[in-house]
Structures are given as structure tokens and as C-alpha cells.
């Protein structure tokens, strides 16, 4: 009978990163609003995939500081487009929830403007643009300094009974 070999895999965690907000931003407790629905992006705050922290500004707009770790790699040294889209899906959907709309995302249109380097802290900003009937439109962008990495338009649809 073939012997089974046990392999020891060592996972080394990247060092802590500063996800602090801007002056005037208030930390936003997303799990208390939507439970564990955000685990895909926000579930491992010290891991090597994403690290995320949410805030609201004085006008109640939702912002996020996001770190794209080595496990989000797509093009060498840069974030995978799906990783960028996942962040947009979570952050813009959450922006609608935070504005009082219980929704799921019906359509997400992401424009990738620049390659996003790994292990960089970037900011997501969001705006609820309109709410008509069950349709809530949220726009957002991921940027750092003058560089915009992605922009997105997110059509959210309210869920009856929520
Ligand atoms: C459940 C609890 C969840 C808790 C979640 C915590 C969230 C955490 C934060 C969030 C983070 C994570 C976020 C996520 O990852 S959410 C996960 C990803 N999203 C999904 O899985 C959603 C899957 N889709 C659906 O469930 C249904 O299709 C929905 C509910 C969206 C609509 O099906 P429903 O049968 O209910 O409604 P309807 O078909 O009569 O449409 C109604 C109106 O909307 C218009 N329309 C619909 N779709 C589209 C489209 N694609 N483009 C353009 N328009 C569209 C439609 O024309 C109509 O308009 P009108 O004819 O009236 O003018």
C-alpha cells in the first residue's frame, strides 16, 4: 500500500498594514448591519487576501480602505480583475445597505483604469446616485492619490420583505 505523505505548509502572513481613515471618518460596523455576508472580502482582516475597513463620512457616504494582498494576484504583481470587481460588489452593495436599502446587486459594470499593485492600501469611495422603485444606483471608484484604478456603476435591486 502506498504511504501517505503529510506535507507541512507554512503560510507566512504579511505584516500589518495601516487601514486608518481620513480625519472625520467614523468607523462603520458592517457585520452588525449585514451579518457575515461580507466574509468573501472582509472575512480575514489579518490574512493575505484582502484586508478591509469601512467608514462613513459626515455626509454618511461609505468609504473603505482596502489592501489587496498577494492572494489577489492576477497579472504579475497586480490585482486580479475579479478581485477588484469583488471589492466593488461588496463596497457598493454595502453602501446601498448602509443608506437603508436592503438589496442584492443586479448589475455591476466595472472599468479597470490602471493596474493595481499588490500590497497597496487603496481607498474605495461610493455614492448612492438614485433610488427609483426597487432600483438603487450606486457609483464608486478605487483610487490612491491621483491614480484611479477602477470605476464602477452598480445597479442594486431591493429585496421584498427585507
Ligand atoms: C437575502 C439576504 C441578503 C443579505 C445580503 C447582505 C448584503 C451585504 C452587502 C452586499 C454585498 C454583496 C452584494 C452581492 O454580491 S449580491 C450577490 C450577487 N447578486 C445576485 O446574486 C443577484 C441575483 N439576481 C437576483 O436575485 C434577481 O435577478 C434580482 C433580485 C436582482 C431581480 O429579480 P426580481 O425577480 O426580484 O426582480 P425583477 O427581475 O422583476 O427586476 C426588478 C427591476 O429591476 C430590473 N433589473 C433586475 N436585474 C437587472 C439587471 N441585471 N440589469 C438591469 N435591470 C435589472 C428589472 O428590469 C426590473 O425593472 P422594471 O421592469 O421594474 O423597471
Automatic annotation (TrEMBL):
GO terms for cellular component: cytoplasm; membrane. This is Acyl-coenzyme A thioesterase THEM4. Its main location: membrane. GO terms for molecular function: thiolester hydrolase activity. CDD domains: PaaI_thioesterase. It is an enzyme of class 3 (hydrolase). It holds the Pfam family 4HBT. It comes from Geoanaerobacter pelophilus. The lineage of its organism: Bacteria, Pseudomonadati, Thermodesulfobacteriota, Desulfuromonadia, Geobacterales.
Amino acid at each position: 500500500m502506498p504511504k501517505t505523505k503529510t506535507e507541512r505548509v507554512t503560510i507566512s502572513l504579511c505584516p500589518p498594514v495601516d487601514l486608518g481613515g481620513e480625519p472625520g471618518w467614523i468607523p462603520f460596523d458592517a457585520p452588525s448591519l449585514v451579518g457575515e455576508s461580507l466574509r468573501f472580502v472582509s472575512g480575514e482582516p489579518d490574512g493575505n487576501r484582502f484586508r478591509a475597513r469601512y467608514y462613513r463620512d459626515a455626509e454618511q457616504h461609505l468609504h473603505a480602505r482596502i489592501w489587496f494582498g498577494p492572494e489577489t494576484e492576477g497579472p504579475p504583481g497586480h490585482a486580479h480583475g475579479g478581485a477588484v470587481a469583488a471589492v466593488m460588489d461588496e463596497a457598493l452593495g454595502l453602501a446601498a445597505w448602509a443608506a437603508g436599502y436592503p438589496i442584492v446587486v443586479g448589475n455591476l459594470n466595472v472599468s479597470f483604469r490602471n493596474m493595481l499593485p499588490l500590497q497597496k492600501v487603496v481607498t474605495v469611495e461610493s455614492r448612492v446616485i438614485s433610488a427609483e422603485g426597487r432600483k438603487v444606483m450606486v457609483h464608486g471608484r478605487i483610487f490612491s492619490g491621483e491614480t484611479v484604478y477602477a470605476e464602477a456603476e452598480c445597479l442594486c435591486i431591493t429585496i421584498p420583505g427585507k
